[in-house]
Amino acid sequence: MKKTLISLSAMAALGLAGTAHAQSSVTLYGLIDAGITYTNNQGGHSNVQEMSGAVNGSRWGLRGAEDLGGGLKAVFTLENGFNIGTGKLGQGSREFGRQAFVGLTSSQYGALTLGRQYDSVVDYLGPLALTGTGYGGTQAAHPFDNDNLDNSFRVSNSVKYQSVKYGGLKFGGLYGFSNDAGGFATNRAYSFGVSYNWNSLNVAAGYLQLNNSGTSLNSSGAVSDDATFTAKTQRTWGVGANYGFGAATVGLLVTQTHLSSLTGIGSSASGTSSGISLASGSARFNNYELNGRYQLTPALSISGAYTYTDSRIAGVSPKWNQFTLQTDYALSKRTDVYLEGVYQHVSDTGNSSIHAVINGLSTSDTNQQVAVTVGLRHRF
């Protein structure tokens, strides 16, 4: 009887809440990506493995909004990442590691949000790179995802502003606090970006800076255990554009990442730095990407990219050449199957023990690596 009364009281409370906030909405959404990947070389051995998120990381989330009147809304997003093969949490076992923020959005002035969020390079340049879309995704990232276009890390303790569109122009910025009383700049982050679209033309630019990310100096700062690099500073900038004509879209993207006092390549990168000497203390990656896609039929598409990365790391100047090709067939609006192949070759590595490493996979023990994935995605 007591349990029944409690249940009835809870139902009544929910009913009253629904009446009081008739203009509120909460949406459950998600994406599941599972596939089988063949790799010709992982640590000297070929491998066939089941993968979660070969293209898009599996996730589920809650998105909500409350209309406050006058074009103003309160909004929130809580998004969890997980491995569909094992059921384990992603992003360092965080409950909502992909995104977690709350804020206000105005139809006139834009949105101001606080929490764990994407940086401006991801927001503005990501959609112009094959890795930032469902047409290439995880394995299409630049070496080590050095420019974070594949969202290897998010920025915690961040406040973010994104404008509305002004005749096709949109801009925004983010600041991630260190939360350290004794070191305001120890593990902080900031970024800004801008985009412009006119008819079928889209152009964008972005900048990101991290201070002491991945180090042991402040583990509760902006970017910690999921940092791609352990370095005193990381500066990433980029520009890109794409143009659509008919069923085709072509794009060009250029990014650069510069690292000072580099001591490690983190676990969020595809491989591991355990065999790479980083005594030089600095590194630079210049990435040049040409990509395109073509909608053969309403259900069938083909896409691809060529990326050239010129770098300076571990006292040598490695040069990566990577080709990505994907074909995708939509079984419905929510479900599709895909076949994706990636080839990577690295040269001029000297005695640094740098080998080919496709994002999301273990390192090859040679200068080349090939991966082929057949997968299924479902959105809800």
From TrEMBL:
Gene3D superfamilies xrefs: Porin
Domain Porin per the UniProt entry, residue ranges: 10-348
InterPro entries, per the entry: Gram-neg_bact_OMP, Gram_neg_porin_domain, Porin_dom_sf, Porin_Gram-ve, Porin_Neis
Membrane topology value: Multi-pass membrane protein
Signal peptide: 1-22
Cell location: Cell outer membrane
Pfam families from the UniProt entry: Porin_4
Keywords in alphabetical order: Cell outer membrane, Ion transport, Membrane, Porin, Signal, Transmembrane, Transmembrane beta strand, Transport
Major place of residence: membrane
Listed PANTHER family: MAJOR OUTER MEMBRANE PROTEIN P.IA (PTHR34501:SF9), PROTEIN YDDL-RELATED (PTHR34501)
Known partners and oligomeric status: Homotrimer.
Name assigned to this protein: Porin
Organism ancestry: Bacteria, Pseudomonadati, Pseudomonadota, Betaproteobacteria, Burkholderiales
